[in-house]
Amino acid sequence: MKVFISSLVSGYERFRDAAAEAIELLGHTVVRAEELPAAASTAQQACLAAVREADVVILLLGERYGVPQASGLSATHEEYREARERKPVLVFVESGVTPEPAQQAFVDEVQAWETGHFRAAFSNPEELKNEVIRALHDYELATATGPVDEAEMVDRARALLPARVGLAVSPQLVVAVAGGPSQQVLRPSELEDPDLTRDLQREALFGDHALLDASEGTDVALEGTRLRVGQRSGFVILDQTGSVCVGQPARRVPAAGTTELPAIVEEDLVDAAVRALRFCGWLLDRIDPRHRLTDVAVVVRLEGASYMPWRTRAEHAASPTSGSIPMGAEDPTVMLTPASRRRQALIHDAERIGQDLVALLRRARLG
Q1: Structural domains of the chain in order of their starting residue, each with its CATH number
Q2: Are 62 and 12 in contact (CB under 8 A)?
Q3: Which of 110, 192, 247, 367 is exposed most, by the fewest CB atoms within 10 A?
Q4: What's the pTM?
């Protein structure tokens, strides 16, 4: 593997050397700023390109933040932002020091992504070397099942989408998430574990990212290698590979006593997409706490809404009882480009991903 070392350089040489020695002992290739070849690009461009080309990023955080670049962030902070969504980041924080205010804010940001990062402390170069060896070894074991295949993940996500049934009684937003590398995450006995079903029902109905209607009951069924928890207005499907598909209403129910034209309201759709992504992130953490699935591909379909106008909240509030009904519109299915993201983005970047997916749905729907 190519392993990029990201840290302050000046004054941190002995720690960077210790990390490099650990990487080389395991037979991997060290990539660090001070050894990059001369190029026509700026040092910043060269370092960020090296981050993108690396397989793993090791982040060393000490007392000092470093000189802010034009972005307002230090070079190390820029490298971290470049890596965190698409690369495994192994974080090592120096203990026994008092970080500068900007560095403490940086550490706090990294810790906010704790569910997606390995994190360890060190106090001297030898301790850091041992921690890096352990972390890289654990990462190799976790990903030993094979490489991440984006196209294969997309195919699995698409396969989870329900069969089209014509004009739906109520429009649904369906979000399918497949993880990789492809492997069996749940044994058949684990898929039918009552504790898993109870946890799934509780989170889907009453959790922080609830997406089913708590006033409705739920039906539970094992369908081959899939567990399905469903109700009239939504569903959750989970299979043995850890792939998840959720459906929920694409249109909010009007308040009692009000009359309005059925419409798809963009902001409501974004809220539903964000809930679905965060729920899928929670469920993956529930069934795969060791993060054997490192990446995810997300596919989204707007189902049964082809007869409804698409509006913003402001547009709908201004004219709730009238509007043009689209002719010949189809139910769109979309995904991001590239389709895969680091798994932790389901929780920490859900807002941005949800906005982007709904923008793609709008384009596909309106042309």
Answers
A1: 2-142 (3.40.50.10140), 150-366 (no CATH)
A2: yes
A3: 367
A4: 0.70
